[in-house]
């Protein structure tokens, strides 16, 4: 089956609403929802925020369910000035920007593994599905929501993602990330932790993030509005094509 994780229930709500033959299993304070989505067997779980919560959930998911691949989804703060609210990022390399074990390892390198980032898989197929979704955007996203969020031409990029246990909401922090990890286009709080666990268990991993805010002064307001309304409709639309 295919595992789908997000950090918040809001980010997968539309998938849970569409899930058929739904069963639930409770473990470690998480609820794992199994069932059929677009005729594919899936298991969906929201991990809660942060790298520890996401890593623990991923480990449980891999050990208790027979996964062929794992997809992480949710929102992110854009730190590349080309990205706008409503754009889609298909993750390429995942960095943990808060790992710093110098002088034993170089900055950002994961101890023992000695990797600066973890790579994703299935990008071509996902990229295709995202393009189909964006071409049929109005089927999934209400016109009034599009206007509310000032989304005119939503685009997608295949880009690097920086994860850490911080909600980023200042230009100062953005500048420091741009300087230290110049290829990272967005920030969030789970992806690279999930990527590391999938790497360690040899599970194919991919990640789709929708830009909810620009990691600036207004981030907390933009983030909440976006996550609570349209975020999960993106993944519902994208998976319809990905699973076809
Ligand atoms: N997820 C969405 N927006 C974010 C931000 N600004 N910082 C961290 N994680 C986020």
UniProtKB/TrEMBL annotation:
<comment type="pathway">
    <text>Amino-acid biosynthesis; L-methionine biosynthesis via salvage pathway; S-methyl-5-thio-alpha-D-ribose 1-phosphate from S-methyl-5'-thioadenosine (hydrolase route): step 1/2.</text>
</comment>
<keyword id="KW-0028">Amino-acid biosynthesis</keyword>
<dbReference type="InterPro" id="IPR000845">
    <property type="entry name" value="Nucleoside_phosphorylase_d"/>
</dbReference>
<dbReference type="Pfam" id="PF01048">
    <property type="entry name" value="PNP_UDP_1"/>
</dbReference>
<protein>
    <recommendedName>
        <fullName>adenosylhomocysteine nucleosidase</fullName>
        <ecNumber>3.2.2.9</ecNumber>
    </recommendedName>
</protein>
<dbReference type="GO" id="GO:0008782">
    <property type="term" value="F:adenosylhomocysteine nucleosidase activity"/>
</dbReference>
<feature type="domain" description="Nucleoside phosphorylase">
    <location>
        <begin position="2"/>
        <end position="231"/>
    </location>
</feature>
<keyword id="KW-0486">Methionine biosynthesis</keyword>
<dbReference type="InterPro" id="IPR010049">
    <property type="entry name" value="MTA_SAH_Nsdase"/>
</dbReference>
<keyword id="KW-0378">Hydrolase</keyword>
<dbReference type="InterPro" id="IPR035994">
    <property type="entry name" value="Nucleoside_phosphorylase_sf"/>
</dbReference>
<keyword id="KW-0326">Glycosidase</keyword>
């Amino acid at each position: 089956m295919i595992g789908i994780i997000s950090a918040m229930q809001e980010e997968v709500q539309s998938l849970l609403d569409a899930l058929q033959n739904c069963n639930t299993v409770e473990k470690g304070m998480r609820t794992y929802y199994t069932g059929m989505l677009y005729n594919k067997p899936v298991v969906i779980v929201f991990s809660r925020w942060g790298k520890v919560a996401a890593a623990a959930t991923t480990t449980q998911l891999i050990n208790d369910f027979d996964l062929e691949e794992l997809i992480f989804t949710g929102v992110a703060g854009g730190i590349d000035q080309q990205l706008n609210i409503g754009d889609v990022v298909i993750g390429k390399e995942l960095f943990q920007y808060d790992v710093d074990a110098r002088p034993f390892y170089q900055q950002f390198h994961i101890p023992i593994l000695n990797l600066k980032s973890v790579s994703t898989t299935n990008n071509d197929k996902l990229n295709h599905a995202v393009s189909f979704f964006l071409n049929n955007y109005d089927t999934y996203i209400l016109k009034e929501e599009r206007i509310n969020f000032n989304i005119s031409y939503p685009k997608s990029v295949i880009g690097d993602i920086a994860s850490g246990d911080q909600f980023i909401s200042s230009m100062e922090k953005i500048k420091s990330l741009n300087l230290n990890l110049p290829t990272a286009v967005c920030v969030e709080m789970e992806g690279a932790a999930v990527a590391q666990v999938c790497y360690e268990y040899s599970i194919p991993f991919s990640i789709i993030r929708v830009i909810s805010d620009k990691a600036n002064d207004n981030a907390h307001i933009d983030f909440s509005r976006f996550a609570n309304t349209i975020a999960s409709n993106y993944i519902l639309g994208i998976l319809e094509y990905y699973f076809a």
